[in-house]
Structure formats: structure tokens, C-alpha cells
Amino acid sequence: RAAKAEELMRPDDASDEEEQGVQPMEDAEEEDTVEDEEEDDEGSFAGPARSLANRMFRAASSALWRREEPTNEATRSQIASFFVERAKYIPLRLELSERKMLRLLESVLHVSQYTDRVEAITANPAKRQQAQMREVHAVLTGLLLACDYKAGQQVLAESSFSDYEVFFQRVFETVRRYKIMNPEKLRDTYGKLIYMLQDANSPELQEHLEFSLVLPIRTVYSKLKETGCLALLQDEQMSLATRLVAPEPGKTRAMIAREIKMKEAAIESLARRYSCAELPAEQLKQCLYSIGDNNAYLYQARDPVDKMISYLTTLFSPESTDDESSLAIAHGQSGARLTHSHERQYAFVLQSLTLWREIANDMFRLWYLAEDDLLRPANGYELRDTGQGHHRVQPAPRTARAMQQLLHATKTKTSGNWVGSSLIHLGDSNVPNALMFIDKYSQVEHILNPILATLEALPSASEKDAAISKWIQSTFGGVAQLRKAILVDFFRYAFDGSGADNFFDAGSCIDGRLTSAWNWCSQLPSKPFFLAFRLTGFTSFNGEFQQ
After folding, report:
1. How many CA atoms lie within 13 A of 480 on its CB side?
2. C-beta neighbour count of 414 within 10 angstroms
3. Would you say the C-alpha torsion 75, 76, 81, 86 has a positive or negative sign?
4. In the predicted model, what is the mean pLDDT of residues 162-169?
5. CA 438, CA 202: separation in Å to the nearest integer?
6. What are phi and psi of 93, to 5 degrees?
7. In 275-425, where does DSSP find H-type helix?
8. What are residue 363's DSSP bridge partners?
9. What global pTM score does this model have?
């Protein structure tokens, strides 16, 4: 079975030539070749590596890390434990042969009507199970026919897939791993895949198929443990080798080039010192690139929440203020379902953003736990009408436990009493299962990034275009006043408990806060500053759907 799987996963010559164009790094960095002489690798970057490692550790452990620098640096053992713990939930970057299978399964799922045909049968369990078997057979046969026509014909005639167990498991695991690393991809097919695997992994279908289609996600930690190279994660140069080199304000091209060279030198140093027969240099680099991909995700998803927290704490006072800067809201005014004074609303917004920040920081672990809850055979689901159509209502104990831990950490880090409800909807009519939960909280970056992009683009747009500058001046009184008006409106009405027909579905509960934010996004075209968004390049909050 393993040999058959290897043969089917092996890319053909055309695929090899096509994939050669894929860069081995996904950081959008300039390609630099490091031609430095052999030198003492352990001491070359000890200072910068320790400083960067401390910065990464603080970023992961404190939501307010940019404003409150701790007096004591993290110890070497703390930093080593930090990298080891994160590596347990960071998926491995795809190899060339896996990318071939990714494109194949994505195409198969794109034309599959699995959920349309299976979810339509609600009254007859026997017919529903028959439809599940029929659709699973169709997907598996299609995959095999596309890879090996003769093998597919034989399996089609015999309806026996067990000889290709390893192949099917690796294909589905590859796509799941890719989705975790790229949350914005596979948006119309991932749910279909999870529901199909959920059914195929049930005891009844497992008995019929004679094997399970689900494998644990391959992570950096599992790869290094398997090859006996866990010591790599405790090396001080890990911070340099996995850093994200981003074009931040104030960085010159020379500074960026220097950071890239230091990163490449650290990667080569680690590859020379830790590669072995079980873990060749290329596979070791793949592990480093995977951790680097995680840092790139945090830059895209976690840092926007940090910036929004910075705007809140810098431009607004937690105490009473004037009417223009007041965040006070009242039930019934402008659609608000809550009544908060300025002080209470300030705390409510800060606590909500801090929680979103903690969730984004731990998203890979939450996703790992969510898939475990979704695909565990003993954890069945109930198909029922939730008031928003028929959904698979399924408990998610591991995900819920992790969320409770994050909520407790947020309460500890934010001063004052907790404002609003601490109820987390998961496994009920509001958030039916862990898939809905992950989809809900992976949208935070899509809400905040367009707002931040507009706020940052307004000064340059005003300087470059006299007509825009004149409109801003006459309508709002200046760029600073316009930015303040956008933030005041967002902090008031994106956290006002609106967005649902009743208080239980929205309100001040943990999930209702995000519902209110999406409701604010839907009302943006009616805001007086919507033109400012359009003038600075805003298109939508959801971005391109397919690509």
C-alpha cells in the first residue's frame, strides 16, 4: 500500500517543470544569495537572535507587548519551550508531489455536490447513509481514475478501496494541512471536504470502506520527533531563521536586505549543524520555512488587532471625555442593542479586541483541536434546523476548553471587571460546530485590515490629490479628524450588540461581539466617510472569493 501511494503521489515530468517555478519561500522577500565565508555560526548572530527571540516570546505571551516592555528578558529555556510548543501545531509546508494532489482534490471537490445531495436528506437515516456511501465512492473513484486509470477501473468494478488506503489518507491530509496554513484558500471546498470526511469517518462508513480516511495533521514537531532532531527547536538561531522580513515603516532597502541575509545565513547554519541521514538539509529547511509561514500568518492576522488596540489606547482615554471622542452608546440609537457609558464601552472594546488578538495568536492550535472535534468517530453530530437552515450540530469539547483558557487569559491581562457576557456559543444553534467557529474567527483580519489600510492611506492620499484634500478639509476638518471619526464610529457601533434578531444571538456574548462587527461592515456604504474608503482603494471586506 505504501508503495502504491508513493507511485501515485510522485509528480510527472510536466508537473516537475511547472513546480520548479514555485519559490521555496513564501515570504514575498527578495531573493538574495549569501556567499559569506565559513565562520563561527554559534557566535555570529547570538545578540540579534536572542533579542528577536525575546520579541517573539513577548508577542505570543502578552497582548499589549508593544506598549509595555517587561523588565526581565525571557530565559533560554522559556524561549526553547515556546518554539517547541508552537511547533506542535504548525503544519508542514507542502512538497512538490503534494501540490499536485492538492490541485487534483481541489478540482474534484469543486465539481462535487456532496453537501447538496447528502444534507437534503433529513428524514430518512437509511437513505442518507446510502447517499453518503455513493458520494464518497464517487470522490474516491474520481481521484484514483485521475492518477491511474487502470487502477481506478479495477476499483470501480470491485468497489474495494482498501489497497489504496495510504494514498487516500495522504491526499486528504495534504489538503487539510494546506488549508490551515492558508485560511483564505479553498473557501468554497474546505467545508465540503470536512463534512465528507466527517461522514466517511463514522463507524458505519469505516466498516464499509475497511479503513479511515483521516490521518493526524503532519506538523513540524512530529517531523522533527520522528527524525530525532527536536534539538533544532531549542537553538538560539531559530528566531533569526524563522523571522518574517516585512517592509515596515522606517525600514530602508539596505536594512531589509541585511535582515534577509541574516535570515538566510541562520537557515544555512542550522541546516549544516542539524541535518542528518533521517532529516536531509532540504527537509530541515522545510521545517524552518513552515515556522516562518506561521510568523507570516501572525503578521497578517494578529498584528492588525495590535494596531487597532494601539489606536484605541493612544487616541482615546479610558475616562470620561468630550462628546466627539465619546464612545458611549444607548439602546435603540443607531441600531445599538446595548447601553454603555464611555468608560464601560472603552473597556468592552479593549477586552473584545484583546480576546480576538489571543485567538489569532493561537489560531493554528484552535484549528488543530477543531478538526479533532469534527472528525473524531465517537463525537457524532445531529442534523437539525437551527433557525438558519439545517446544520450539523456537534459538541466541540477540546475547542471549547481551549477557548475558555484564552478567555481566562484575556480577563487576566485586561484590567478592571469583565464587561458583558462570558458565554461562548459552540455546539448550539448559534455556532453549530467547530467548523463554523473557525470560519467565524478567521474573518477578524478581513474586518480590520481594510479599515487599517484606509486609515494609513488617508494622509498620503490627501497630500497627492488637492481635490481629496479639499473634500476632507471641508467635510471633516482635516485628515486627523476624519481618522478619528472613523475610529469613533467603529468603536461605538461595531461593538453595540447589533446584528441579530434577538439579544441571545448577538448582544454582549463572546460570539455576538464579532456578529456586531460584521453588521458594522455591512452598513459601511451608509456611513458619511464611505467615500474616503473608496478613494483609498477599498473594494470589500471579503476580498476575492476564488483566488
Report:
1. 2
2. 19
3. positive
4. 89
5. 22
6. -65, 145
7. 281-301, 303-315, 342-361, 363-375, 397-413
8. none
9. 0.86
